[in-house]
Design goal:
The complex is a heterodimer.
Chain A: H1 9-17, H2 20-44, H3 46-65, H4 67-80, E1 84-88, H5 91-104, E2 109-112, H6 116-121, H7 123-129, E3 133-136, H8 139-147, H9 163-174, H10 182-199, E4 202-205, E5 209-211, E6 216-221, H11 225-231, E7 235-241, E8 245-246, H12 249-264, E9 271-275, E10 289-295, H13 299-304, H14 319-323, H15 327-330, H16 341-352, H17 369-373, H18 380-393, H19 404-417, H20 420-433, E11 438-439, E12 442-443, H21 450-456, E13 461-462, H22 469-475
Parallel strand pairs in A: 1-10, 2-3, 2-4, 4-7, 5-8, 7-10
Antiparallel strand pairs in A: 5-6, 6-9, 11-12, 12-13
Helix pairs in contact in A: 2-12, 3-12, 16-18, 18-19
Chain B: H1 14-24, H2 38-41, H3 44-60, H4 62-75, E1 79-83, H5 86-100, E2 104-107, H6 112-115, H7 118-124, E3 128-131, H8 140-149, E4 152-155, E5 159-161, E6 166-169, E7 185-191, E8 195-196, H9 199-212, E9 220-224, E10 229-230, E11 238-239, E12 246-252
Parallel strand pairs in B: 1-12, 2-3, 2-4, 4-7, 5-8, 7-12
Antiparallel strand pairs in B: 5-6, 6-9, 10-11
Helix pairs in contact in B: 3-9, 5-7
The chains are: A alpha/beta, B alpha/beta.
The complex binds iron/sulfur cluster.
């Protein structure tokens, strides 16, 4: 499994905030992705957007409630299409499965398209150790692989790198001249990787969705590397979390509408590729073998906890990262594990252990923006509070920094966030109450509120806007009730 | 149906894994009856009715669909050439090949090329046109090599989606996965009858065919929506990474 550095959250985020080029990069994300997302929504109208969110959420609820049933169906349909399905309880097992497939089929070279799950498993390390040359092929992933780093964003993994850094990296590792031309850098990557694609024995992909009905793996990409990984090598392994399954092909449509718009503001990405088993006998090309590795690795703990199950609805669009004032200040690496941002602050503690990641549930100002932008309406603030609560209540955590005051504040927040009417009333009060502390659109560092001050010590907290998103939004709807779950 | 290989399964036995999932859901037995989920309760007859209704709907809005598709496709950076003339279509392709200054092009082997005899027109421009399909005389590897050497890949479209400006291809016999992907320029031919309104339509028709074919989806389906692109360095858009940098549509309608 990928190295866990969640204990270092406080020092890592302090360091991140002193990193000038990181802050510049983060400003671009906050603006760029988020504006594009809003434009894409306005194009279809907020009303339609809300309908889609509703349908998607209902579908996820249903799929997860009956996960055993749909996994069985998926298994049967993939197998009927000539593929192989492997189940892995944890990271070690998942890595061993891939290593065994590679070993028994004499794989020398593997190309990979972007997969957060394989980052979670640290699969590349296992392949390396087993003598398989493995190449990340998504441009961002390729950059961080060359640099020996980990992704800092769900959608744009090399977001923390400037073009100067990339140029220097390519110069050192690939021996190409320095340049400040980004197109030239992309061209170099294309050239180097093209040859790898065509010589690879194995292509590894993740999955954005798995369709139970037809046994189909769906990947959504822009560069074309996903298509090459699933088309050129003689073996294809899809490796993904077990929560990605949706019942029917018909259900896929709404997710294809939500995901690209939420991630990059695109109507649809350049490519949506759907793989059902290996090549058929009379196909022109395609892999002779298709393997699907379904990974639990702690997901059943989320499934079993009614308070946290909805974290499994996440489609990894990154919208909650792009809007999050905390992510916007510290970037992805400070979170200390594969999944950053608001959703990472829930998933990581559950997957690596809450004790290991006590600070993550506190890495939020609970402004609620993540929930507002989430295409699946995942109630992230509620879950963060739940985790804070658990930390506060746990007898094992007495040495944790949590004071009685904070515990009470956590409880109050918890009540507030599960109570929309009270929340909007509180937001109004909060705007008035913060007035004395606001300067230049930021809350001053000396806010005399216990929970907030711990956060604002050394950080600027964005002030609550004059009108919250929730309020602006509600005006466009017939009744506010519609936006509640 | 697909020829059954012997499925292998490494890792945890399926029943153990599913048992654990089930216990996490607070159950210890598999569901006795299938959970109710609307799309999955549909049978062949239901789907046929819906597909028929969809086909009729598409028929009545065909003209408008062509306009909408053209507009969306342009937004998604397809170079659209719309014409009702077969000659002009072929002329566009020959001009393109000339402009690109390439020596080789590859095309798929699809029914659309019976309507559109591009081969001789392209060969007349002096390029070598290669049909990317294998038979007894050409091996898979040879087909692949020819595609790699081609400066232009030409395909038809199994569907064209007005909602998204996408061309959908279903690689199979005659249609390589690589011909629309590996050459730096891709040209797709779309006819009015290929058009559907939405991605829902695509999935409806695919589901019907899936049942029709006794549960075979075909191995691959690709939505292609404009050129290959990335914004992975400083969020600056670069067109043409691993896939084609330039994509053309001949909209024959
Ligand atoms: S939690 Fe929601 S917004 Fe965040 S990445 Fe997941 S789906 Fe996107």
């Amino acid at each position: 499994m990928a190295e866990v550095k969640t204990r270092d959250f406080v020092s890592a985020s302090d360091a991140a905030m002193r990193d000038a080029s990181l802050r510049r990069a983060l400003r671009q994300v906050g603006g760029g992705f988020n504006e594009a997302r809003l434009e894409a929504i306005e194009e279809v109208s907020w009303e339609t957007w809300e309908e889609w969110r509703e349908v998607a959420r209902r579908t996820k609820i249903h799929a997860l409630e009956n996960l055993d049933y749909y996994l069985e169906m998926l298994h049967d349909r993939v197998t009927a299409a000539g593929g192989h399905v492997h189940f892995a309880r944890d990271a070690a097992q998942a890595n061993a499965i891939v290593a065994e497939i590679a070993r028994s089929r004499s794989v020398k070279i593997a190309t990979k398209s972007k997969s957060m799950v394989s980052e979670e498993l640290d699969l590349n390390h296992t392949l390396d150790a087993n003598g398989v040359e493995v190449y990340e092929t998504d441009l961002g992933e390729y950059i961080i692989q060359l640099a020996g780093e980990t992704p800092s964003h769900l959608v744009a993994p090399a977001l923390h790198k400037t073009k100067e850094q990339v140029s220097e990296l390519f110069h050192q590792k690939l021996g190409v001249p320095l340049t400040d031309d980004i197109e030239e850098m992309a061209r170099v990557a294309r050239q180097v990787l093209r040859e790898k694609f065509l010589s690879a024995d194995l292509g590894i992909s993740g999955a954005n969705f798995l369709v139970a009905e037809t046994g189909t793996l769906v990947i959504i990409t822009n560069e074309g590397n996903g298509r090459l990984c699933t088309s050129a090598p003689r073996i294809h392994i899809g490796i993904t979390g077990m929560e990605k399954v949706i019942p029917s092909l018909q259900d896929l449509a709404v997710f294809l509408r939500l995901l690209p718009r939420s991630a990059t503001g695109q109507r649809l990405t350049s490519y949506v590729s759907m793989v059902t088993g290996p090549r058929r006998n009379d196909d022109e090309d395609g892999p002779e073998e298709f393997h699907l590795v379904l990974v639990d690795n702690g997901r059943s703990r989320l499934l079993a906890d009614p308070e946290l199950r909805e974290a499994l609805y996440c489609i990894r669009c990154g919208a909650c990262l792009n809007i999050c004032p905390v992510y916007g200040k510290i970037g992805g690496h400070a979170y200390g594990w594969v999944y950053p941002g608001p959703i990472g602050a829930i998933v990581s503690p559950t997957l690596v252990g809450l004790k290991e990641a006590k600070d993550l549930p506190h890495a939020s100002s609970l402004c609620g923006a993540c929930r507002e932008v989430c295409p699946i309406r995942i109630n992230i603030p509620r879950m963060l509070l739940h985790l804070r609560h658990r930390l506060a209540e746990s007898p094992l955590e007495t040495e944790n920094a949590t004071t009685t005051g904070e515990r009470q504040a956590a409880q109050a927040y918890s009540w507030l966030m599960s109570n929309p009417a009270a929340l909007s009333a509180a937001a109004k009060v909060g705007r008035l109450a913060q007035k004395p502390f606001v300067s230049g659109g930021k809350v001053s560092k000396r806010v005399p509120l216990p929970l907030v001050s711990r956060w604002t010590g050394g950080r600027d907290l964005p002030a609550m806007p004059r009108q919250t998103f929730r309020e602006i939004w509600a005006q466009g709807l017939e009744s506010e009730a519609e936006i509640r779950e | 149906m697909v020829e059954k290989q012997n499925a292998i399964s490494l890792g945890v036995p399926k029943d153990d894994f599913l048992g654990h999932v089930r216990r996490s859901l607070g159950r210890d037995q598999p569901l006795e009856t299938a959970p109710v989920h609307l799309p999955l309760t549909e049978n062949f007859a239901d789907l046929e009715v819906r597909a028929k209704a969809a086909t009729e709907r598409l028929e009545t809005i065909r003209g408008e669909l062509v306009d909408r598709f053209e507009e969306t496709a342009r937004v998604r950076n397809w170079n659209v050439f719309r014409t009702s003339s077969v000659e002009e279509s072929i002329g566009y392709m020959a001009d393109l090949a000339g402009r690109l200054g390439i020596s080789k092009a590859a095309r798929a082997d699809q029914p659309v090329f019976a309507e559109l005899a591009v081969d001789s027109a392209l060969q007349n421009t002096g390029i070598e046109l290669f049909v990317a399909a294998h038979d007894e005389s050409t091996s898979d590897l040879r087909v692949r090599q020819q595609i790699i050497e081609s400066g232009l890949g030409i395909t038809g479209a199994d569907y064209a989606v007005a909602e998204t400006g996408s061309v959908v291809v279903l690689p199979r016999k005659g249609l390589s996965r690589l011909v629309s992907l590996v050459p730096p320029v891709h040209l797709a031919i779309v006819r009015a009858k290929d058009l559907v309104e939405s991605i829902d339509d695509v999935f409806l028709f695919r589901r019907l065919e899936y049942l029709h074919k006794g549960g075979d989806m075909g191995s691959y389906l690709n939505f292609i929506t404009g050129p290959s692109r990335t914004a992975d360095i400083e969020m600056k858009l670069v067109v043409g990474v691993h896939g084609p940098r330039e994509v053309h549509l001949v909209l024959l309608a």
